[in-house]
Specification:
heterodimer, A: alpha+beta, Alpha-Beta Plaits, 3 domains, 10 helices, 10% strand, B: Rna Polymerase Sigma Factor, Chain: A, 2 domains, 9 helices
Chain lengths: 206, 198
């Protein structure tokens, strides 16, 4: 698609406006981006709209939520061998929505309590981008070989220039928060070690 | 912005994470529970956000999320590599959420908590930002789930319009039209407020 010239038919202004959200987020192809920029140079209204959308882009954000309890429930579901699989995919899941969720049957009070534990406070659900939580958001997951000596484990973690923010999890994974700019190098370094079974990024990046 | 992609992710070409996620799927096909846990942790914040926006019932979000990921665990071979892993998973989540909504079709009590600036005397430094966010949430709550999905996938998850069309299983033009409507709605609702508060 590179090098293709985008020629808007007639409603160039509207077509550019329709593309602005993805121009803001950097998700247009090169030809589309160039066409939008050419129009922005001559259209004050679209420049104003662009400024508004950049503000939207910044503001539409959300708090991360606690993953541990959700994963624990997922793990229990996987661990139930006699449980009927979701034969028809998403449709079957939805059809079995109530019956396929035993914890739903434990009552709304439990559910609410669980949700409160997960999000800390109910208002977070509503609070788009409110005050950030304690910085526990990892961006790298790493699993060591079981026989790895502790000193070796610590050396590997130190080599990433990151912090250990979680783990070991049920799967013996450790979650690290590594500086974004150094993550690729850290992953490469970890994957090169013989004591590492798996090192994967957890996206989106911090 | 903790779970937004970094600004450097705007460069062209497939992100390394895309390849890594496809590798995880391949491991899941081999029933690798560790790979599944990593994928689960990668997608938990993104799906929580997406499903919360669609379902607006906190107690259903985790169930829908785990139903979505259960499809990934049970049918990883359904991912055929022609799309990104994220497109595939978000599409499963969207279908799961639509079905859930159809079973819980009682009207949702929309939050009426978006304070106007003059109604809130909180002196803290971040007052303006909270007001903007509260107003945005109030405005978004008045949109349909389909419109909210397009807004969320675009601005938060930073997904292109062609992929959004795949996720929502609708024409590209529909995505653009929904976004156009959503933007006009938000702009009308927020007219003057962002400029005043920021």
């Amino acid at each position: 698609m590179k090098g293709r010239v985008i020629r808007f038919r007639g409603g160039q202004h509207r077509e550019v406006q329709d593309l602005l959200p993805w121009y803001v987020t950097g998700k247009l192809e090169a030809a589309e981006r160039e066409a939008v920029e050419a129009h922005l140079n001559v259209c004050a209204e679209c420049r104003e709209e662009l400024a508004f959308q950049r503000e939207l882009d910044v503001e539409i954000a959300r708090l991360p939520l606690e993953v541990e309890q959700s994963w624990a429930r997922m793990r229990r579901r996987i661990g139930e061998p006699g449980r009927r699989a979701f034969g028809g995919g998403a449709v079957a899941i939805a059809a079995n929505w109530r019956t396929s969720a035993p914890w739903l049957l434990t009552g709304l009070v439990t559910l609410t309590a669980a949700w409160l534990l997960i999000v800390g406070q109910p208002s977070r659900y509503h609070a788009l981008g409110a005050a950030p939580p304690p910085a526990a958001a990892g961006n790298v997951a790493v699993i060591f070989r079981p026989e790895t000596p502790e000193a070796q484990l610590r050396a590997a973690l130190r080599s990433t220039h990151g912090r250990l923010v979680d783990g070991p999890t049920a799967a013996d994974a450790y979650i690290l928060a590594v500086p974004a700019a150094e993550r690729e190098a850290a992953l490469a370094g970890l994957r090169g070690r013989r004591d590492i079974v798996m090192a994967e990024p957890i996206d989106p990046a911090p | 912005m903790l779970f937004r992609k970094s600004p450097t992710s705007q460069s062209a070409g497939p992100a390394p994470a895309t390849l890594d996620e496809a590798r995880l799927i391949a491991r899941i096909v081999g029933r690798d529970l560790r790979a599944f846990e990593l994928l689960y942790r990668i997608y938990h914040p993104r799906l929580t956000r997406f499903l919360t926006n669609l379902l607006r019932r906190p107690q259903l979000v985790e169930e829908a999320l785990n139903d979505t990921m259960m499809v990934v665990w049970k049918r990883p071979e359904k991912f055929n590599g022609t799309s990104k892993v994220s497109t595939w998973i978000f599409a499963i989540a969207y279908r799961t959420a639509l079905k859930a909504r159809s079973r819980y079709d009682e009207p949702v009590e929309e939050p009426e908590h978006a304070p106007r600036p003059s109604e809130d005397a909180d002196p803290e430094q971040h007052l303006g930002q909270r007001q903007v966010q509260a107003a945005l949430l109030g405005a978004m709550s008045r949109l349909s789930p389909e419109h909210r999905a397009v807004l969320d996938l675009t601005y938060f998850h930073e997904i292109g319009y062609r992929e959004i069309a795949e996720i929502l299983d609708c024409p590209v033009g529909t995505v653009k039209t929904r976004m156009h409507h959503a933007r006009r709605h938000l702009k009308g609702w927020l007219e003057g407020r962002l400029e005043d508060w920021l």
